[in-house]
Design goal:
The complex is a heterodimer of chains A (about 140) and B (about 375). Chain A has two helices and eight strands. Chain A has about 140 residues and is mainly β. Chain A has a five-stranded antiparallel beta sheet, with helices on one face. The longest helix of chain A has 8 residues, at about 20-25. In chain B, the strands form two sheets. In chain B, strands 3-2-4-7-1-8-11-10-9 form a nine-stranded mixed beta sheet, sandwiched between helices. Chain B has a two-stranded antiparallel sheet with strand order 5-6. With about 375 residues, chain B is α/β, with parallel strands linked by helices. Chains A and B meet through β4, β5 and β6 of A and α5, α6 and β5 of B.
Chain lengths: ~140, ~375
Protein backbone atom coordinates (compact mmCIF):
# COMPACT_ATOMS: atom_id res chain seq x y z
CA UNK A 1 0.00 0.00 0.00
CA UNK A 2 1.26 3.40 -0.92
CA UNK A 3 0.30 5.28 2.23
CA UNK A 4 1.37 8.62 0.83
CA UNK A 5 -1.08 8.23 -2.04
CA UNK A 6 -3.73 6.81 0.29
CA UNK A 7 -3.52 9.79 2.64
CA UNK A 8 -4.33 12.10 -0.25
CA UNK A 9 -7.46 10.03 -0.92
CA UNK A 10 -8.81 10.28 2.60
CA UNK A 11 -11.79 12.50 3.33
CA UNK A 12 -10.37 15.79 4.59
CA UNK A 13 -10.83 16.41 8.30
CA UNK A 14 -13.42 19.13 8.84
CA UNK A 15 -15.44 20.41 11.77
CA UNK A 16 -18.20 18.10 10.58
CA UNK A 17 -16.17 14.90 10.89
CA UNK A 18 -13.38 15.73 13.34
CA UNK A 19 -14.93 13.62 16.08
CA UNK A 20 -14.87 10.55 13.87
CA UNK A 21 -11.22 10.91 12.94
CA UNK A 22 -10.16 11.72 16.48
CA UNK A 23 -11.95 8.54 17.47
CA UNK A 24 -10.00 6.44 15.00
CA UNK A 25 -6.74 7.73 16.50
CA UNK A 26 -8.05 6.90 19.96
CA UNK A 27 -9.04 3.39 18.91
CA UNK A 28 -12.75 4.16 19.00
CA UNK A 29 -15.35 3.92 16.25
CA UNK A 30 -17.63 6.92 16.63
CA UNK A 31 -20.97 7.65 15.05
CA UNK A 32 -22.89 10.89 14.79
CA UNK A 33 -26.14 10.96 16.75
CA UNK A 34 -28.69 13.72 16.50
CA UNK A 35 -31.72 14.20 18.68
CA UNK A 36 -33.65 11.38 17.00
CA UNK A 37 -31.05 9.02 18.38
CA UNK A 38 -30.51 7.39 14.98
CA UNK A 39 -26.79 6.93 14.41
CA UNK A 40 -25.51 7.97 11.01
CA UNK A 41 -22.41 7.27 8.96
CA UNK A 42 -20.65 8.92 7.29
CA UNK A 43 -21.13 12.45 8.55
CA UNK A 44 -24.07 14.46 7.38
CA UNK A 45 -25.10 18.00 8.32
CA UNK A 46 -28.47 17.24 9.93
CA UNK A 47 -30.38 14.51 11.69
CA UNK A 48 -32.32 12.65 8.97
CA UNK A 49 -35.42 12.40 11.16
CA UNK A 50 -35.66 15.87 12.69
CA UNK A 51 -33.40 17.84 10.28
CA UNK A 52 -31.81 19.41 13.34
CA UNK A 53 -28.09 20.19 12.91
CA UNK A 54 -27.14 19.48 16.53
CA UNK A 55 -25.38 16.20 17.20
CA UNK A 56 -22.96 14.38 19.47
CA UNK A 57 -20.37 11.73 18.71
CA UNK A 58 -21.09 8.40 20.36
CA UNK A 59 -18.79 5.45 20.64
CA UNK A 60 -20.01 2.40 18.76
CA UNK A 61 -19.34 -1.08 20.10
CA UNK A 62 -17.02 -1.87 17.22
CA UNK A 63 -18.95 -5.05 16.52
CA UNK A 64 -20.44 -5.72 13.11
CA UNK A 65 -21.59 -8.45 10.76
CA UNK A 66 -20.28 -9.13 7.29
CA UNK A 67 -23.07 -8.38 4.84
CA UNK A 68 -20.94 -9.18 1.80
CA UNK A 69 -17.58 -8.57 0.15
CA UNK A 70 -15.82 -8.47 -3.20
CA UNK A 71 -12.26 -9.01 -4.29
CA UNK A 72 -11.20 -6.18 -6.57
CA UNK A 73 -9.06 -7.33 -9.48
CA UNK A 74 -9.21 -4.11 -11.44
CA UNK A 75 -6.84 -1.28 -10.66
CA UNK A 76 -8.63 2.02 -10.20
CA UNK A 77 -6.48 3.85 -7.65
CA UNK A 78 -2.70 4.32 -7.80
CA UNK A 79 -2.57 3.93 -4.01
CA UNK A 80 -3.92 0.39 -4.37
CA UNK A 81 -1.79 -0.64 -7.33
CA UNK A 82 0.33 -3.09 -5.35
CA UNK A 83 -2.67 -4.39 -3.40
CA UNK A 84 -4.60 -5.77 -6.39
CA UNK A 85 -6.40 -8.10 -5.89
CA UNK A 86 -7.74 -6.74 -2.61
CA UNK A 87 -10.78 -7.41 -0.48
CA UNK A 88 -13.49 -4.84 0.24
CA UNK A 89 -16.18 -5.69 2.77
CA UNK A 90 -19.63 -4.23 3.35
CA UNK A 91 -20.47 -4.55 7.00
CA UNK A 92 -23.41 -3.65 9.19
CA UNK A 93 -22.49 -2.18 12.54
CA UNK A 94 -24.29 -3.43 15.61
CA UNK A 95 -25.85 0.04 15.83
CA UNK A 96 -27.40 -0.27 12.38
CA UNK A 97 -25.39 1.76 9.85
CA UNK A 98 -23.53 0.04 7.05
CA UNK A 99 -20.00 0.86 6.01
CA UNK A 100 -17.46 -0.15 3.42
CA UNK A 101 -14.25 -1.42 4.93
CA UNK A 102 -11.75 -4.21 4.58
CA UNK A 103 -10.86 -7.27 6.60
CA UNK A 104 -7.59 -7.88 8.39
CA UNK A 105 -6.30 -11.46 8.09
CA UNK A 106 -9.53 -12.88 6.66
CA UNK A 107 -9.97 -16.63 7.13
CA UNK A 108 -9.75 -18.84 4.06
CA UNK A 109 -13.45 -19.63 4.21
CA UNK A 110 -15.34 -16.39 4.49
CA UNK A 111 -19.11 -16.31 4.72
CA UNK A 112 -21.79 -13.64 4.69
CA UNK A 113 -23.08 -13.01 8.18
CA UNK A 114 -19.82 -13.67 10.02
CA UNK A 115 -19.33 -11.62 13.21
CA UNK A 116 -16.63 -8.97 13.12
CA UNK A 117 -14.93 -6.49 15.36
CA UNK A 118 -13.17 -3.28 14.51
CA UNK A 119 -9.41 -2.80 14.51
CA UNK A 120 -7.57 0.39 13.64
CA UNK A 121 -4.58 0.79 11.40
CA UNK A 122 -2.60 3.96 11.80
CA UNK A 123 -1.31 5.15 8.45
CA UNK A 124 0.24 8.44 9.48
CA UNK A 125 0.88 10.49 12.58
CA UNK A 126 -2.61 11.95 12.50
CA UNK A 127 -4.69 9.38 10.61
CA UNK A 128 -5.95 5.91 11.41
CA UNK A 129 -8.42 3.83 9.43
CA UNK A 130 -10.99 1.40 10.84
CA UNK A 131 -10.80 -2.14 9.51
CA UNK A 132 -12.44 -5.32 10.74
CA UNK A 133 -11.41 -8.82 11.65
CA UNK A 134 -13.50 -11.95 11.91
CA UNK A 135 -14.34 -12.90 15.48
CA UNK A 136 -14.03 -16.61 16.22
CA UNK A 137 -17.36 -17.79 17.59
CA UNK B 1 -55.31 22.83 -19.13
CA UNK B 2 -56.20 20.02 -21.51
CA UNK B 3 -57.24 16.65 -20.11
CA UNK B 4 -54.59 13.99 -19.63
CA UNK B 5 -53.32 12.86 -23.01
CA UNK B 6 -51.94 9.50 -24.02
CA UNK B 7 -48.32 9.37 -25.07
CA UNK B 8 -46.43 7.37 -27.68
CA UNK B 9 -42.82 6.93 -28.70
CA UNK B 10 -42.79 7.79 -32.40
CA UNK B 11 -39.13 8.09 -33.27
CA UNK B 12 -35.98 6.29 -32.26
CA UNK B 13 -32.43 6.79 -33.40
CA UNK B 14 -29.11 5.38 -32.36
CA UNK B 15 -25.61 5.33 -33.74
CA UNK B 16 -23.76 2.35 -35.17
CA UNK B 17 -21.97 1.29 -32.00
CA UNK B 18 -19.92 -1.44 -33.62
CA UNK B 19 -18.56 0.85 -36.32
CA UNK B 20 -17.71 3.50 -33.74
CA UNK B 21 -15.99 0.93 -31.54
CA UNK B 22 -13.78 -0.30 -34.35
CA UNK B 23 -11.78 2.93 -34.28
CA UNK B 24 -9.69 2.70 -31.12
CA UNK B 25 -8.17 6.15 -31.37
CA UNK B 26 -11.27 8.23 -31.89
CA UNK B 27 -11.78 11.44 -29.96
CA UNK B 28 -15.46 11.93 -30.43
CA UNK B 29 -17.71 14.66 -29.17
CA UNK B 30 -20.69 13.49 -27.10
CA UNK B 31 -22.85 16.24 -28.57
CA UNK B 32 -22.11 15.07 -32.09
CA UNK B 33 -23.11 11.54 -31.10
CA UNK B 34 -26.38 12.80 -29.64
CA UNK B 35 -27.00 14.96 -32.70
CA UNK B 36 -26.59 12.03 -35.06
CA UNK B 37 -29.07 10.02 -33.02
CA UNK B 38 -31.54 12.92 -33.00
CA UNK B 39 -31.32 13.30 -36.76
CA UNK B 40 -32.04 9.60 -37.18
CA UNK B 41 -34.91 9.74 -34.69
CA UNK B 42 -36.55 12.69 -36.43
CA UNK B 43 -36.27 10.91 -39.78
CA UNK B 44 -37.68 7.79 -38.15
CA UNK B 45 -40.64 9.75 -36.81
CA UNK B 46 -41.18 11.73 -40.00
CA UNK B 47 -41.03 14.96 -38.00
CA UNK B 48 -39.10 18.18 -38.50
CA UNK B 49 -36.77 19.52 -35.84
CA UNK B 50 -38.81 22.74 -35.55
CA UNK B 51 -41.78 20.65 -34.42
CA UNK B 52 -39.85 19.66 -31.29
CA UNK B 53 -41.03 21.79 -28.36
CA UNK B 54 -39.39 19.87 -25.54
CA UNK B 55 -35.80 18.74 -25.03
CA UNK B 56 -34.47 16.45 -22.31
CA UNK B 57 -30.80 15.53 -22.40
CA UNK B 58 -28.49 13.20 -20.54
CA UNK B 59 -24.68 13.10 -20.54
CA UNK B 60 -24.79 16.17 -22.73
CA UNK B 61 -25.94 19.41 -21.16
CA UNK B 62 -29.07 21.18 -22.29
CA UNK B 63 -27.51 24.61 -22.63
CA UNK B 64 -24.77 23.69 -25.05
CA UNK B 65 -27.00 20.92 -26.37
CA UNK B 66 -29.76 23.31 -27.41
CA UNK B 67 -27.17 25.36 -29.26
CA UNK B 68 -25.54 22.39 -31.00
CA UNK B 69 -28.87 20.77 -31.86
CA UNK B 70 -30.46 24.01 -33.01
CA UNK B 71 -33.41 23.83 -30.62
CA UNK B 72 -32.98 27.17 -28.87
CA UNK B 73 -36.45 27.84 -27.57
CA UNK B 74 -38.38 24.73 -26.54
CA UNK B 75 -41.19 25.03 -24.04
CA UNK B 76 -39.54 22.54 -21.74
CA UNK B 77 -35.84 21.80 -21.48
CA UNK B 78 -33.63 20.12 -18.91
CA UNK B 79 -30.68 17.80 -18.40
CA UNK B 80 -30.90 14.71 -16.27
CA UNK B 81 -27.90 13.65 -14.22
CA UNK B 82 -25.56 11.25 -15.95
CA UNK B 83 -26.27 7.94 -14.25
CA UNK B 84 -27.91 5.14 -16.17
CA UNK B 85 -31.08 5.00 -14.12
CA UNK B 86 -32.02 8.35 -15.66
CA UNK B 87 -33.00 6.93 -19.05
CA UNK B 88 -36.18 5.49 -17.55
CA UNK B 89 -36.74 8.68 -15.58
CA UNK B 90 -36.31 10.82 -18.71
CA UNK B 91 -39.04 8.89 -20.50
CA UNK B 92 -41.30 9.33 -17.48
CA UNK B 93 -40.69 13.06 -17.40
CA UNK B 94 -41.41 13.32 -21.11
CA UNK B 95 -44.61 11.31 -20.68
CA UNK B 96 -45.80 13.51 -17.81
CA UNK B 97 -45.03 16.72 -19.68
CA UNK B 98 -46.91 15.61 -22.79
CA UNK B 99 -49.81 14.16 -20.80
CA UNK B 100 -50.34 17.53 -19.14
CA UNK B 101 -49.82 19.62 -22.26
CA UNK B 102 -46.55 21.28 -21.25
CA UNK B 103 -45.13 20.14 -24.60
CA UNK B 104 -46.39 18.25 -27.62
CA UNK B 105 -43.22 16.75 -29.10
CA UNK B 106 -40.32 15.96 -26.80
CA UNK B 107 -36.90 14.81 -27.93
CA UNK B 108 -34.84 12.88 -25.40
CA UNK B 109 -31.21 12.99 -26.47
CA UNK B 110 -28.27 11.07 -25.02
CA UNK B 111 -24.65 11.22 -26.13
CA UNK B 112 -21.82 9.31 -24.50
CA UNK B 113 -18.19 9.45 -25.62
CA UNK B 114 -17.04 7.11 -22.86
CA UNK B 115 -14.59 5.20 -25.01
CA UNK B 116 -13.11 8.36 -26.50
CA UNK B 117 -12.44 9.88 -23.09
CA UNK B 118 -11.38 6.54 -21.59
CA UNK B 119 -14.11 6.58 -18.97
CA UNK B 120 -13.68 3.98 -16.25
CA UNK B 121 -16.85 4.58 -14.22
CA UNK B 122 -14.65 4.41 -11.15
CA UNK B 123 -11.47 5.60 -9.53
CA UNK B 124 -10.26 9.15 -9.03
CA UNK B 125 -12.48 11.86 -10.34
CA UNK B 126 -15.55 9.69 -9.98
CA UNK B 127 -17.01 12.35 -7.75
CA UNK B 128 -19.89 11.74 -5.45
CA UNK B 129 -21.22 12.23 -1.97
CA UNK B 130 -19.06 12.17 1.16
CA UNK B 131 -19.64 8.42 1.16
CA UNK B 132 -17.60 8.09 -2.01
CA UNK B 133 -14.50 9.35 -0.19
CA UNK B 134 -15.02 6.93 2.69
CA UNK B 135 -15.49 4.03 0.28
CA UNK B 136 -12.50 5.01 -1.83
CA UNK B 137 -10.12 4.79 1.10
CA UNK B 138 -10.73 1.05 1.02
CA UNK B 139 -10.31 0.94 -2.75
CA UNK B 140 -14.05 0.63 -3.24
CA UNK B 141 -15.29 2.21 -6.45
CA UNK B 142 -17.35 1.64 -9.61
CA UNK B 143 -20.95 0.48 -9.71
CA UNK B 144 -19.87 -3.02 -10.74
CA UNK B 145 -18.17 -3.53 -7.41
CA UNK B 146 -21.33 -2.55 -5.53
CA UNK B 147 -23.40 -4.92 -7.66
CA UNK B 148 -20.78 -7.60 -7.01
CA UNK B 149 -21.37 -7.12 -3.27
CA UNK B 150 -25.09 -7.61 -3.81
CA UNK B 151 -24.65 -10.65 -5.99
CA UNK B 152 -22.41 -12.42 -3.49
CA UNK B 153 -25.01 -11.83 -0.80
CA UNK B 154 -27.81 -12.96 -3.11
CA UNK B 155 -25.85 -16.11 -3.90
CA UNK B 156 -25.38 -16.75 -0.20
CA UNK B 157 -29.04 -16.15 0.67
CA UNK B 158 -30.40 -18.34 -2.13
CA UNK B 159 -27.76 -21.01 -2.53
CA UNK B 160 -26.67 -19.91 -6.00
CA UNK B 161 -23.76 -21.85 -7.49
CA UNK B 162 -20.81 -20.27 -9.27
CA UNK B 163 -21.48 -19.72 -12.95
CA UNK B 164 -25.19 -19.03 -12.54
CA UNK B 165 -24.85 -15.75 -14.43
CA UNK B 166 -23.44 -17.44 -17.51
CA UNK B 167 -26.82 -17.87 -19.29
CA UNK B 168 -27.42 -14.11 -19.10
CA UNK B 169 -24.01 -13.23 -20.52
CA UNK B 170 -24.37 -15.90 -23.21
CA UNK B 171 -27.86 -14.68 -24.12
CA UNK B 172 -26.66 -11.11 -24.56
CA UNK B 173 -23.90 -12.17 -26.93
CA UNK B 174 -26.19 -14.50 -28.87
CA UNK B 175 -28.63 -11.66 -29.45
CA UNK B 176 -25.84 -9.22 -30.25
CA UNK B 177 -24.59 -11.60 -32.94
CA UNK B 178 -27.84 -10.90 -34.81
CA UNK B 179 -27.57 -7.13 -34.31
CA UNK B 180 -25.60 -5.37 -37.06
CA UNK B 181 -24.75 -2.35 -34.89
CA UNK B 182 -23.69 -4.31 -31.81
CA UNK B 183 -20.19 -3.95 -30.41
CA UNK B 184 -19.63 -7.50 -29.15
CA UNK B 185 -20.99 -9.77 -31.85
CA UNK B 186 -18.99 -12.89 -31.03
CA UNK B 187 -20.96 -15.51 -29.13
CA UNK B 188 -19.43 -16.96 -26.00
CA UNK B 189 -19.63 -20.40 -24.43
CA UNK B 190 -20.12 -21.30 -20.81
CA UNK B 191 -16.49 -22.41 -20.70
CA UNK B 192 -15.35 -19.03 -21.97
CA UNK B 193 -17.56 -17.31 -19.43
CA UNK B 194 -16.17 -19.33 -16.52
CA UNK B 195 -12.60 -18.82 -17.70
CA UNK B 196 -12.92 -15.06 -18.06
CA UNK B 197 -11.05 -12.93 -15.57
CA UNK B 198 -12.60 -11.50 -12.44
CA UNK B 199 -13.11 -7.75 -12.30
CA UNK B 200 -14.76 -7.50 -8.89
CA UNK B 201 -15.03 -11.10 -7.71
CA UNK B 202 -17.66 -12.62 -7.91
CA UNK B 203 -18.26 -10.67 -11.14
CA UNK B 204 -16.31 -11.52 -14.25
CA UNK B 205 -15.47 -9.64 -17.41
CA UNK B 206 -18.53 -10.94 -19.25
CA UNK B 207 -20.78 -9.72 -16.44
CA UNK B 208 -19.70 -6.15 -17.14
CA UNK B 209 -21.05 -3.54 -19.51
CA UNK B 210 -19.04 -2.38 -22.48
CA UNK B 211 -17.52 1.09 -22.45
CA UNK B 212 -18.18 2.61 -25.85
CA UNK B 213 -19.16 5.75 -27.74
CA UNK B 214 -22.67 6.30 -29.00
CA UNK B 215 -25.80 8.36 -29.11
CA UNK B 216 -29.47 7.59 -28.67
CA UNK B 217 -32.56 9.71 -29.20
CA UNK B 218 -36.24 9.12 -28.58
CA UNK B 219 -39.13 11.25 -29.82
CA UNK B 220 -42.34 11.20 -27.83
CA UNK B 221 -45.64 12.85 -28.64
CA UNK B 222 -49.36 12.31 -28.17
CA UNK B 223 -51.00 9.13 -29.37
CA UNK B 224 -53.37 11.34 -31.35
CA UNK B 225 -50.52 12.94 -33.28
CA UNK B 226 -48.78 9.58 -33.58
CA UNK B 227 -51.73 8.14 -35.48
CA UNK B 228 -51.01 10.55 -38.32
CA UNK B 229 -47.39 9.47 -38.66
CA UNK B 230 -46.12 6.74 -40.93
CA UNK B 231 -45.04 4.12 -38.43
CA UNK B 232 -46.90 2.02 -35.93
CA UNK B 233 -47.25 4.07 -32.73
CA UNK B 234 -45.80 2.58 -29.57
CA UNK B 235 -47.95 3.77 -26.71
CA UNK B 236 -46.57 4.19 -23.22
CA UNK B 237 -49.36 2.22 -21.55
CA UNK B 238 -47.89 2.68 -18.08
CA UNK B 239 -44.79 3.95 -16.37
CA UNK B 240 -43.80 4.14 -12.71
CA UNK B 241 -40.83 4.67 -10.43
CA UNK B 242 -39.84 4.14 -6.84
CA UNK B 243 -36.55 5.15 -5.26
CA UNK B 244 -34.65 3.01 -2.81
CA UNK B 245 -31.84 5.32 -1.93
CA UNK B 246 -29.19 4.94 0.74
CA UNK B 247 -25.64 6.17 0.83
CA UNK B 248 -24.67 3.13 -1.19
CA UNK B 249 -25.59 1.77 -4.58
CA UNK B 250 -25.74 -1.55 -2.75
CA UNK B 251 -29.32 -2.40 -1.88
CA UNK B 252 -29.63 -4.89 0.95
CA UNK B 253 -32.88 -6.25 -0.54
CA UNK B 254 -31.61 -6.24 -4.15
CA UNK B 255 -34.05 -3.42 -5.06
CA UNK B 256 -36.89 -5.85 -4.41
CA UNK B 257 -39.33 -3.73 -2.43
CA UNK B 258 -39.04 -0.79 -4.82
CA UNK B 259 -39.40 -3.14 -7.78
CA UNK B 260 -42.50 -4.77 -6.34
CA UNK B 261 -44.11 -1.37 -5.84
CA UNK B 262 -43.34 -0.29 -9.40
CA UNK B 263 -44.46 -3.65 -10.78
CA UNK B 264 -47.81 -3.45 -9.02
CA UNK B 265 -48.39 0.02 -10.42
CA UNK B 266 -47.38 -0.62 -14.04
CA UNK B 267 -49.35 -3.85 -14.21
CA UNK B 268 -52.46 -2.24 -12.72
CA UNK B 269 -52.23 0.89 -14.85
CA UNK B 270 -51.51 -0.88 -18.14
CA UNK B 271 -53.82 -3.84 -17.71
CA UNK B 272 -50.96 -6.17 -18.67
CA UNK B 273 -49.28 -8.64 -16.35
CA UNK B 274 -45.85 -10.22 -16.50
CA UNK B 275 -47.14 -13.14 -18.55
CA UNK B 276 -48.41 -10.75 -21.24
CA UNK B 277 -45.00 -9.32 -22.14
CA UNK B 278 -43.61 -10.32 -25.50
CA UNK B 279 -40.11 -9.20 -24.62
CA UNK B 280 -38.23 -7.65 -21.72
CA UNK B 281 -35.57 -4.98 -22.01
CA UNK B 282 -33.80 -5.02 -18.65
CA UNK B 283 -31.19 -2.52 -17.56
CA UNK B 284 -28.09 -4.67 -17.24
CA UNK B 285 -25.00 -2.64 -16.52
CA UNK B 286 -24.03 -5.89 -14.77
CA UNK B 287 -25.66 -9.28 -15.26
CA UNK B 288 -27.01 -9.72 -11.68
CA UNK B 289 -29.44 -6.84 -12.23
CA UNK B 290 -31.31 -9.08 -14.65
CA UNK B 291 -31.99 -11.54 -11.82
CA UNK B 292 -33.04 -8.79 -9.42
CA UNK B 293 -35.36 -7.32 -12.06
CA UNK B 294 -36.99 -10.60 -13.00
CA UNK B 295 -37.77 -11.32 -9.36
CA UNK B 296 -38.82 -7.78 -8.50
CA UNK B 297 -41.25 -7.71 -11.42
CA UNK B 298 -42.77 -11.15 -10.82
CA UNK B 299 -41.32 -12.81 -13.88
CA UNK B 300 -39.48 -15.28 -11.68
CA UNK B 301 -40.04 -16.35 -8.08
CA UNK B 302 -38.01 -14.66 -5.34
CA UNK B 303 -34.59 -16.22 -5.04
CA UNK B 304 -35.09 -18.36 -8.13
CA UNK B 305 -34.39 -16.15 -11.13
CA UNK B 306 -30.97 -17.78 -11.44
CA UNK B 307 -32.75 -21.06 -12.22
CA UNK B 308 -35.38 -19.34 -14.35
CA UNK B 309 -32.93 -17.77 -16.81
CA UNK B 310 -32.23 -20.84 -18.86
CA UNK B 311 -30.73 -20.24 -22.27
CA UNK B 312 -33.95 -21.46 -23.87
CA UNK B 313 -36.38 -19.37 -21.86
CA UNK B 314 -34.80 -15.94 -22.28
CA UNK B 315 -33.69 -16.46 -25.87
CA UNK B 316 -35.14 -14.43 -28.72
CA UNK B 317 -37.30 -17.38 -29.72
CA UNK B 318 -37.90 -18.50 -26.15
CA UNK B 319 -40.78 -18.10 -23.76
CA UNK B 320 -39.70 -14.66 -22.51
CA UNK B 321 -37.02 -12.99 -24.66
CA UNK B 322 -34.66 -10.77 -22.69
CA UNK B 323 -32.44 -7.97 -24.02
CA UNK B 324 -32.95 -8.86 -27.64
CA UNK B 325 -30.44 -6.29 -28.96
CA UNK B 326 -27.66 -7.76 -26.86
CA UNK B 327 -28.02 -5.59 -23.78
CA UNK B 328 -25.23 -3.64 -22.15
CA UNK B 329 -22.71 -6.46 -22.36
CA UNK B 330 -23.42 -7.21 -26.02
CA UNK B 331 -24.86 -4.30 -27.99
CA UNK B 332 -23.49 -1.23 -26.25
CA UNK B 333 -23.54 0.64 -22.98
CA UNK B 334 -25.96 3.48 -23.54
CA UNK B 335 -27.21 3.34 -19.95
CA UNK B 336 -30.67 2.01 -20.73
CA UNK B 337 -31.35 4.35 -23.62
CA UNK B 338 -30.66 1.66 -26.20
CA UNK B 339 -33.06 -0.69 -24.42
CA UNK B 340 -35.88 1.75 -25.14
CA UNK B 341 -34.98 1.80 -28.82
CA UNK B 342 -35.00 -1.98 -28.94
CA UNK B 343 -38.41 -2.20 -27.26
CA UNK B 344 -39.87 0.14 -29.88
CA UNK B 345 -38.23 -1.67 -32.78
CA UNK B 346 -39.44 -5.04 -31.57
CA UNK B 347 -43.00 -3.78 -31.34
CA UNK B 348 -42.81 -2.21 -34.80
CA UNK B 349 -41.37 -5.39 -36.29
CA UNK B 350 -38.15 -3.62 -37.29
CA UNK B 351 -35.64 -5.82 -35.51
CA UNK B 352 -34.58 -7.86 -38.53
CA UNK B 353 -32.90 -11.20 -37.76
CA UNK B 354 -33.42 -10.75 -34.03
CA UNK B 355 -37.16 -10.01 -34.38
CA UNK B 356 -39.39 -11.63 -31.77
CA UNK B 357 -42.45 -13.12 -33.43
CA UNK B 358 -45.71 -11.23 -32.88
CA UNK B 359 -44.24 -8.69 -30.47
CA UNK B 360 -46.93 -6.26 -29.33
CA UNK B 361 -46.08 -5.59 -25.69
CA UNK B 362 -42.60 -4.85 -24.35
CA UNK B 363 -41.50 -4.00 -20.85
CA UNK B 364 -38.53 -1.85 -19.87
CA UNK B 365 -37.21 -2.54 -16.37
CA UNK B 366 -34.45 -0.82 -14.44
CA UNK B 367 -33.80 -2.10 -10.92
CA UNK B 368 -31.47 0.44 -9.35
CA UNK B 369 -31.53 3.16 -6.68
CA UNK B 370 -34.31 4.61 -8.84
CA UNK B 371 -36.30 1.65 -10.06
CA UNK B 372 -38.35 2.39 -13.17
CA UNK B 373 -40.46 0.41 -15.57
CA UNK B 374 -42.61 1.14 -18.59
CA UNK B 375 -45.06 -1.04 -20.44
CA UNK B 376 -45.03 -0.21 -24.15
CA UNK B 377 -47.81 -1.39 -26.44
CA UNK B 378 -48.15 -1.28 -30.22
CA UNK B 379 -51.31 0.56 -31.22
Amino acid sequence: MDNQKLIVMLPPVTDANRGYWEGTLAGELRLQCGDSGAPRYPESPVDPVTLDPEFAWRAASGRATLWSWIVMHQQYFPAFADEVPYLVAFVQLEEGPYMMTTLVDPPEHLECGMPLEVVFEQISQDRAIPKFKVVSA
Amino acid sequence: MPGRRQVAIVGVGQTDFGALYANKDAHRDAYALGAEALRLALDDAGLRKDEVDGLLTARIHYEHGAHVLGIPSPRVINTLEGSGRMSGVAVQHAVSLIETGQADVIACVYGNNGRSVKMTYGGDGYAGSPTTRYDAMYGMTSPGAYVGMMYRRYAHDYGVPDGALAPIAINNRRNAALNPVAVMREEITEEQYLASRYIADPLRLYDYCIINDGGVALILTTVEKARHLAKRPVRVAATAARAGVSNYYTSTDFFHSASQDVARRVYAASGYGPQDMDCLQIYDNFTPTVLFSLEGFDHAPRGEAWKWVTGDRIARDGEMPVNTAGGHTGESYMQGWGHHVEAVRQIRGEAGPRQVADCNVAQYICASPITTSHVLVGE
